[in-house]
Write a structure and sequence with these properties.
This protein is 40% helix and 22% strand. A ten-stranded mixed sheet has the order 2-1-3-12-11-4-5-10-8-9, with helices on both faces. It has a two-stranded antiparallel sheet with strand order 6-7. Helix 1 runs parallel beside helix 12, helix 8 packs parallel to helix 9 and helix 11 packs across helix 12. It starts with a strand and ends with a helix. The site of nicotinamide-adenine-dinucleotide has 20 residues, from loops.
């Protein structure tokens, strides 16, 4: 039986509560003889700062580098609002993304039938929705230099951020999107603002080249990012895979997330370049934060975290059937009417984090 080493970073707030539920699901998969998982635990964010004054220690960075996959819950909270900027909780997350070279952020927006009412859009627009947003994560305006605020002689200030992309950065993210599309609906929508930005002109050119050279079998369309934002709320089911840069990806994936109802439902994956054996560095995390308002109450929704583990099975370990069964177990439990407080809607009662985890683990056990 294959064995995988998972570096688990529960982080802050509801992190430890939701990661505990992942271990239950992993136990069911090992019990069925599909794979073994070794969980090694570390500290990131505020909890790491409290333990050793850093947002992540060198020893934990080394463990993250050595693991088959990193599974992180969330970092941050008001307790660490005043710690120095370099060691703020988010610095641990950014260091992991940067040092592991995680340039491709995959954010599925999946609307479970049973939850279509929880969306801010009409049921018929979102029911059965299944979009994958592929966001470039290590380049663009968040990292480009110069990035500064300077004082002008007239007493005013001047702020500059720099949007910069090189060919190789666009080629590799486009390849991830095309590969992904081949395993789904075979369609990629590439998005930028080539009408007003030079980086958009290059983006469109390079994506078109990659398509022509290596993926002519996949349907490709280009859409300006503002138009795409509008189409996402007008008729979201027209999309399969969307590929876009760091800034637009940040915005558009948050819009897409609201189509599905609750932050507590959404997993994500961040992938690095493939090595000679085809293996990629990877980190899996829910889209939501540490939810300090509900931390310690045992009411957080563990589905985004369990879904993130499912993505690790799919994209790092090749356990496609087990990943499909986790999604089915989640869907079955929701269809049976089980709800945590965040997705309760008009239901009269809701269950705890651990009851939801137990129900998903049991549904999975039955299916295996
Ligand atoms: P948040 O995602 O933590 O919470 C937003 C709202 O959604 C809250 O009402 C929260 O209770 C609810 N929520 C989130 N996840 C939930 C879940 N699994 N189940 C039920 N309800 C859930 O975002 P925020 O309040 O803006 O930020 C709180 C802290 O988290 C801040 O310190 C922020 O910096 C940090 N944060 C971290 C990450 C990350 O680690 N990737 C992402 C976003 C925010």
């Amino acid at each position: 039986m294959a064995s995988y080493n998972i570096f688990l970073l529960p982080g802050d707030g509801i992190g430890p509560e939701v990661t505990a539920e992942v271990e239950k699901v992993a136990h069911v998969i090992s019990g069925a003889g599909l794979a073994k998982f070794e969980f090694e635990k570390g500290l990131v964010g505020g909890s790491a700062y409290d333990a050793h004054g850093q947002a992540i220690s060198e020893a934990d960075m080394a463990r993250a580098q050595a693991a088959d996959a990193v599974l992180l819950a969330a970092v941050g909270g008001p307790k660490w609002a005043d710690v120095p900027y370099e060691v703020r909780p988010e610095a641990g997350l950014l260091r992991l993304r940067k040092d592991l070279g995680l340039f491709a952020n995959l954010r599925p927006a999946l609307c479970y039938r049973a939850l279509a009412e929880a969306s801010s859009l009409k049921r018929e627009l979102v029911e059965g929705l299944d979009i994958m947003i592929v966001r470039e994560l290590t380049g663009g305006v968040y990292f480009g230099e110069p990035k500064e605020i300077t004082n002008l002689p007239n007493g005013q200030k001047r702020a500059v951020d720099t949007q910069v992309y090189e060919t190789y950065e666009i080629e590799r993210i486009a390849a991830v999107a095309f590969e992904m599309a081949r395993k789904r609906g075979n369609k990629v929508t590439s998005s930028e603002k080539n009408n007003v930005m030079k980086s958009g002109v290059l983006w469109k050119e390079v994506v078109t080249d990659v398509h022509k050279k290596s993926y002519p079998d996949v349907q490709l369309e280009h859409m300006l990012a503002d138009a795409l934002g509008m189409q996402l709320v007008r008729y979201p089911k027209q999309f399969d895979v969307i590929v876009t840069d760091n800034l637009f990806g940040d915005l558009l994936s948050d819009v897409a997330s609201m189509l599905t109802g609750s932050l507590g439902m959404l997993p994500s994956a961040s992938l690095g370049a493939a090595d000679a054996s085809g293996k990629r560095k990877a980190m899996y995390e829910p889209v939501h934060g540490s939810a300090p308002d509900i931390a310690g109450k045992g009411i957080a929704n563990p589905i985004a975290m369990i879904g993130s583990f499912g993505m690790a099975l799919r994209y790092s370990f090749g356990l496609i059937e087990a990943a499909d069964l986790i999604e089915k177990a989640i869907s079955d439990v929701l269809a049976a009417g089980l709800r945590t407080a965040d997705i309760k809607g008009d239901a009269t009662s809701s269950v705890s984090t651990s009851a939801m985890g137990d129900a998903i683990a049991n549904a999975l056990k039955k299916a295996l």
